[in-house]
Amino acid sequence: MGIKERREREKQATRQLILDAARELFVNEGYEAVTMRRVAEKIEYSPTAIYVHFKDKAALMRELVAHDFLRFAESLNKVARVQDPLERLRKLGRAYLAFAQEHPATYKLLFMQRYPPEVDDDKHGIQQGNPEQDAYAFLQKMVQEAKDAGCFKPEHQDVDLISQTLWGGLHGLVSLHLVMKEDAWLPLRPLGKSADLMLDLLLGGFARPPGSGTTRAR
To answer: Where in the chain is the DNA-binding region found (predicted)?
Structure first.
């Protein structure tokens, strides 16, 4: 490996170190409370070294959110190969759950934090409507394909309503477990079992009964 390649690799490793430290601080202490100096202290770098990579805190947050949203979307896109539309939605729900369990700090940053205008207005650098980058667009696509295959009852044809109901149910369960899992007053059942039950109930409510045919909705 040449000097140029080694320096580039070291640069990327440092950026990732900064992003990981910032994620933890933003989640635990809040965006407003965290300073660039605080991030530098976390990784034992000088503040000047942080500014070499990010011009300010908003730029750091924008890259972090874009990076994590793309990683989240990539994890969900793996279910696209499942052939049956309803089973694909079920697998999508489980993939959502798995991501939240494996990356709780990332999940909190993406879905349990408010972003300041200078970060939120940037749209996180994600191409809205592109299912490969926009996780909600991917969910809509999966629901639309199930609708087009005639999987849903005639009264359940609103793709956004179905998408948001599924997402809201999963997010509610994940948030409950992330916030209350150590609460002795609330004996939470395993998250996986709760999510499977919720998906059974929701998808069962949306879906046509077995044997009722798969006529495409008009």
So the answer is: 35-54
Q: Tens of pLDDT along the chain (218 residues)?
A: 677 787 788 888 999 999 999 999 999 999 999 999 999 999 999 999 999 999 999 999 999 999 999 999 999 999 999 999 999 999 999 999 999 999 999 999 999 988 777 776 555 568 889 999 999 999 999 999 999 999 999 999 999 999 999 999 999 999 999 998 878 888 899 999 999 999 999 999 999 998 776 544 43
Neighbours of 190 (CB within 10 A): 9
96-118 as b/e: b if 16+ CB within 10 A: bbebbeebbebbbbbeeeebeee
Query: Is residue 66 within 8 Å of 72, Cβ to Cβ?
Result: no
Give the predicted TM-score (pTM) of the model: 0.86
Q: Which domains does the chain have, with CATH numbers?
A: 1-54 (1.10.10.60), 65-206 (1.10.357.10)
Nearest to 97 by CA among 192, 202, 197, 203: 192
**DSSP bridge partners of 207:** 152
Contact by Cβ (8 Å): 22, 105: no
Task: Find all residues with CB under 8 Å of 67, minimum gap 6, and list them.
Answer: 19
Query: What are the residue ranges of helices labelled H in 149-190?
Result: 159-180
198: its two tokens: 């919720």
